[in-house]
Amino acid sequence: MTLTLHGVSLRIDGRPIVHGADLEIGAGEFVGLLGPNGCGKSTLLRSAYRALRPSAGLITVEGDDLVRLTPRESARRTAVVAQETPAELDFTVAEVVAMGRTPHKKPLDRTTTADELICAQALERVAAGHLRERGFTTLSGGEKQRVLIARALAQQSRLLLLDEPTNHLDIRHQLEILRLVRGLGISTLAALHDLNQAAEYCDRLYLMDGGRIVAGGSPAEVLTPERISQVYGVRAVQRAQLVFELKEDQ
Amino acid sequence: MSQAKALRRGYAARVSDRLWPVIAVLVLATVASTLFAVTIGAVQVGPAQVWGIVADRLVPGSAAPTWTPAQAQIVWDFRLPRALLALLVGAGLAVVGAVLQALVRNPLADPFLLGVSSGASLGAVLVFILGSSVLGGLSLSVAAFLGALLALVLVYVLAQRSGRITPARLVLAGVALAYLFQAVYSYVLQQAQSGRAAQQVLFWLMGSLGGARWEMLPIPTVVLLAGVAYLLFQHRPLNALSSGEESAISLGINVTALRVRLFLLTSLLVGVLVATSGAIAFVGLIVPHTARMLVGADHRRVLPVSALLGAVFLQLVDVAARTIAAPQELALSIVTAVFGVPFFLWLLRRRG
Fold this sequence. Notes:
The complex is a heterodimer of chains A (250) and B (352).
Chain A: E1 3-12, E2 15-25, E3 30-34, H1 41-48, E4 56-61, E5 64-65, H2 71-77, E6 78-81, H3 93-98, H4 113-125, H5 141-154, E7 159-163, H6 171-184, E8 187-191, H7 195-201, E9 204-209, E10 212-217, H8 219-222, H9 225-232
Parallel strand pairs in A: 3-8, 3-9, 6-7, 7-8
Antiparallel strand pairs in A: 1-2, 1-4, 4-5, 9-10
Chain B: H1 2-16, H2 19-39, H3 47-58, H4 69-103, H5 116-130, H6 140-159, E1 160-161, E2 164-165, H7 167-191, H8 195-205, H9 218-233, H10 235-242, H11 245-250, H12 255-277, H13 283-295, H14 299-323, H15 332-350
Antiparallel strand pairs in B: 1-2
């Protein structure tokens, strides 16, 4: 297992946010984390990259207790695309991607041609090579998200955590990001909002409600009309309507 | 493979193409501005004479004297240490500014934001007004440094909660304490018996290199060189930190420990610099910005370029301060404000 959570509880300023969460991500799986606003999705993700320490429970990455790994080692195993976008200071795209090499470098290490190659390839892989010289703050939302994914790729981790990567993007860019992430073949846990998109792109889903994981499994198992009604308080209705897909030539 | 090579070349070119030319120009400018500063003054000394005096002092008898003993004394005892101190203070304030802007993630941050310079000023004012005998024979610079240290400890204690320091709390605690210290030393100044001493202190508070002597140089030199060397090794953590706390954590940075180290280091630097030259405003704000415009935001390039640019800038500022109203000297903050305020306002408007 790339990532496991056993009975993880999380508090922020003493306030309990997540209660006894169990979760597993296998090698190469694309797993979606769903749930209404404020259900604890982001908080759960933050615990998996050490921004928040569990008040109870165990998190392992590739079999090792996360608490026992050094910050550097943990960052070599797990890369994150968080919601907060970096850079008040105007870094270029190339510099943002190069930050992905941070956990591989000791203070005295120089940036080698191998590092530069890794960064360049990461940018090509998200089809953003042409943005290399641009200032990060001048990019559109979709471009920023692609560049941050490139930074995560430059980190060469085997686990990728994404916090609502399609937030604020138009439909085409949403689909492009999901297809891109799916095609990476890296174990991925992504907090997502769109149930239909999650069902279509993810291998498995977890559904959270009120700080607890209330269901886990294949999209068909998790997203039943009864459960959606319970968790979101809306009725799931099957209806013939437009479905959006990327065109083949894009 | 050739495609990979091409990719890499494009990448590498961007990273290093402008750094070394900029550094080369700035090193030349540092030497030239220093030489210029040493030749300028009430007593005329030519550049060739300056070289001769310096060579003769370093290796006695190595140059045939084309100067008077008085010229030699002025250059060696007063102008040269002053010019070297200008370089140190300018470089130090600029580097501190660059680091603080990364630390609090705000491009408008400046070395005096953390209350440290006000603490140092308070220490200095007490020695000036009360006389060093009252404070147990403390020299002015030691008192300034102790004041900086006091401010540092207070800001640190106030800004932390369960071991975590956040930029917002750091700034708020620093600004609040700065006002408190200013109130205290203003009160002391107001109550001072001798108007002349008070005026002297006011002048010093606004920055002056007039007191520069050789024996003042070793401590700032060592602290600055060690500090800049350490910060250069930390360029990746600094970049990560300026991209945000969560992002830095996810890149493997121990953010809390890094913030504490940076806070201590910047406070130490500010304390040492203020102790030698008073509180010089705006250098830490405008120089790092100019450096970023020249070479981008990567701290591997911003730090050395800021240091050199700050050194040259303060050297020229000091020349201006000595010459504009000669024989009277202007306080350095007056000169830096003339450049700094328009720059600050321009920055404010540009950022919307």
